Structure formats: C-alpha cells, structure tokens
Amino acid sequence: MPTEEVIGAIAAVLTTSSFLPQAIKVLRTRDTEAISLTMYVLFTAGVTLWGIYGLMTWQWSIIIANGVTIVLAATILTMKVAAKLAAGRKPRGAGGN
Which of 42, 79, 84, 86 is most deeply packed, by most CB within 10 A? Predict the structure, then answer.
C-alpha cells in the first residue's frame, strides 16, 4: 500500500473517531441544546461533499470515513432540527395567548 494511502487511512480513522464521542453523547442523551444548528448544517454539507469527492476519485479512505460520519452527522442534525421545531410548538406561557 502506498504511503499516501496509509496516511489517508490513518487520517480518516482519526477524524471519524474524534467525532464519535460527541455523536454517542447526543444519541444517548438526546440533548442538542449546546450544538450550533448552523455548524451542523455546514458540517453535514461538507462531509457530504467530501464523500462525493471520494466517490468521484475512488479514494476508499475518504469514502468510508465520510460515509460513517455523514450517517452520524445527519442523525444529529435531524435531532437538532426536531428539537428546534418542538421548542417552537410549546406554549410560551400559562395564559394561553
């Protein structure tokens, strides 16, 4: 295996695994309060584009790492949007106005 592929594979494992603790915490607690919606939209879009780039260039370390990350990021983004929508539907006061 060429050196650049080894470096790419190691980078993919490190960046994907660095995302796992946050993803696991959000999935367990369902708490997305402290997560920036804008950041997750941009992050998810970027990971998607990296995945597309990997597919276009047949770079397996990019394809696999971004495939795993997009599933986790999209799940968290969906949870964040659902929480925002749910918060918008809650009554604001006891007066019923």
Answer: 79
